[in-house]
Predict the 3D structure of the following.
Amino acid sequence: MTKAVGRALAAAVLAGLLGAAFMAFWFVVHPRLDIGFETDPPRLLGGIYPAERDPATGLTFAWSGQELALRIPGLDRSVDWTLELRVRGARQAAGDNPTLSFFGDGVLLATAPTHTDFESISVVVPASPARPRGVVIVIQSSATFVPGSGDPRSLGVISTGCRSRRTASRSHLDGRSLGPRSAPRCSGRRSRCWA
């Protein structure tokens, strides 16, 4: 029995190491990560509810809670990355839509207001020589609401997906430089996710 437990533990450790190595290799070969909600969110994401589909439009989306976390263990931190999140606050009164705060490894990167309609918000995750691989991005919603009618969820914002890609030049987005604590400008509205 001790040998069986030892083998199971060794297999788990090996699987973890291989997973991290695969993620590092993935970002060398494919310098982009796209996450959509055609199915339930992947394990890289925490703080997000199961995927839903709008029956009228067929659009798939997922609600966040107050805090959404994206863990990317193999991300190459020797270069800047841009995180793009397609999101909407979905409140009836425009003033009730929450503000999102974006953190990379605990450091505030940017804040951005949300709106009633979908928009893409882009934020630069700067290179980090002190941490060569991996990042944890946390997105906090300034307000949540409980929809009621038997739905006890505390909802932040609706997202149709996100993407992460290498940034060509350091800390430039839409023609202007964004440093920590700057609010990003929305990069435009789209009728479909990543069309």
